[in-house]
Batch of 2 targets.
Target 1
Amino acid sequence: MSEYAEGAMPETNDAKTTLIIGAGAVGLGLASCLHRAGRRIHFVVRPGPGPHPLEVRGLRRTGILGEARIAPDAVGISRSFSALPRLDIDAILVCTKSSANPELAPALASHWRSLPQPVPVVVCQNGWGNAEIFARDLPPEHVASASILTGFRRSEDHAVEITVHARAIQIGCLYSGELQSLEPLCAAIDAGGIPCETSASIEADLGAKLLYNCLLNPLGALVGVPYGRLGEEAPTRAIMEAVAQEVFAVWGAGRFQVHWPDAERYLEVFYADLLPPTADHESSMLQDLQAGRPTEIDSLCGAVVALGQKFQVATPVNSALLELIHAAERRARPDKT
Ligand SMILES: NC(=O)c1ccc[n+]([C@@H]2O[C@H](COP(=O)([O-])OP(=O)(O)OC[C@H]3O[C@@H](n4cnc5c(N)ncnc54)[C@H](OP(=O)(O)O)[C@@H]3O)[C@@H](O)[C@H]2O)c1
């Protein structure tokens, strides 16, 4: 057995291919699972010079949910949709940051329409309103969303570390109650080492992740401390609690599906159960700012502000965080303003 085959089911000749858009932390992590479960993997990556590191070194996964490897010749790479070979695709996973969506969605939809049969497109992104962008160009019942409370870190261009795992990945569709078409994908991710299940309450699952991210990501980036410290000091606690109150007010006005009755109950759970396991984590938004990359603030606090405008609910604290992160982005990327 080669080192690459260790722990993996062999691909069969009739194995389906899962198309993964974006070979970042989440894309690599999910690919490692699907390959272990016997599926073929093909990535669409951004254009770049020379062979992609995955084509040279294969894929390596380490971390708390076990190790996995994929040999270089078992990883398919295309640098655009038009360069894709003919593949028997069973699902498409969108694993880019949400800032890529406006450009990506029309190109993905055009490719999706060329496939011989409809396949689910699963948006594996944090934030609110991402699936809606893809559902403008695709039949909404084929656009699913994943709520991911697993932490992935791309340690090298071909390597991912799973650093934390809080709950099974939830995959469901905001536009249809049909979950059967998502079950094979969930079963494969699960078999590959990351617990994963279909969800009939994906709106509430995405909302739960939105809340967690709105409370911690922007403030963690602005203050520059790990998440746990934000819960230790009165001023940062007050800001997080105000963010939660605004999100619950917006959800109440919009009659959204929610896992907690009110902000007070959520905050009890947040401080007791959700914050402690990630106390040492630094905000990925801070890393984006430091690297001069766009952040996902528009699909986090920006989405709350937009919902507040729609339902006439004041969201001054989310609005302030949105503006402060935009200012930090302009400072980090002066050429992009
Ligand atoms: N990392 C986590 O622990 C985690 C957990 C839960 C949810 N999420 C969410 O999952 C999403 C992905 O996060 P991530 O951490 O995997 O981000 P990431 O490591 O930055 O990966 C995103 C990848 O997408 C690529 N990309 C961007 N635009 C593209 C395009 N048009 N075509 C093809 N590839 C493109 C990027 O390429 P370049 O390298 O060239 O920029 C990068 O490789 C985000 O919404 C994030 O919030 C992340």
Target 2
Amino acid sequence: MKELTEEIKIGCHVSIAKSIDLAFDRAKKIGCSTFQVFTKNPRGWAFKEISKKEIEQFREKHLNYDISPVVAHISYLPNLASLNDEIYTKSMDSFLKEIERCTILNIPYFVIHSGSYKGGTYQEGFEKYVESIQKGIDFGERKVTILVENSAGGGKTLTGTFVNIQAILEEINDSRVKVCFDTCHAFAAGYDISNHSGVANFIDEIKATIGMESIAIVHANDSKTELGSYRDLHEHLGLGNIGETGFSNLINDSTLRKKPWILETPIDERRTDVDNINYLRSLINK
Ligand SMILES: [Zn+2]
Ligand SMILES: [Zn+2]
């Protein structure tokens, strides 16, 4: 049954430092069969130009390296549900520019984080968020699928529960919007995926809300914080509160194992990305 193991796409978030196409080389070097990038420096609003040469090399490597899908993640600052006009305008500007980069680079998936409806009601934030995503789909000429990521919950976040995410998908009702399931965020939001029955209940909840087919990719991160903490702190796989039993049950689920798994685990001396990828592979039932 070796083929099954190889079919599972596992990779991690890689740097675009120096030239965006180098992301492919970094992904290849650590044995990724899928990977994620930012399309710009994620920490500010500014965009550094991507040269024609970088774009060409990125596309060429996309064709020649056997690594797919490539996933992009939105930068940190945009809030697509912001009820503050100035922040909303900046957020939309950045969001659309990043989508444009995805189209230029032929990146099929773009992960966005939850919006926050700070200063307003859930309904107001919900409407802004839905409108933003619809604009994004059109702006990307329907070539880019926008992935709504579940959040760690609590506060004024829109996507802490899969019931709320389902409401968003239903309102947009477009095949160009799907979901990125982040394991750490789900655990922090109160979904106990650390044991066999917890994972079974979780899958039932997904089936009753967004449906398994709506999950386009998985963000595989363990959680440093407790169940229902509403705090988003990623940990190396198996070393946090989701633990080995949780990840083993998740990756061996007959549907989830068919999704691309992307790690966003910490960078420190305890484990490298290669260690985390190998660890996840070691949990796959052969
Ligand atoms: Zn994530
Ligand atoms: Zn996170």
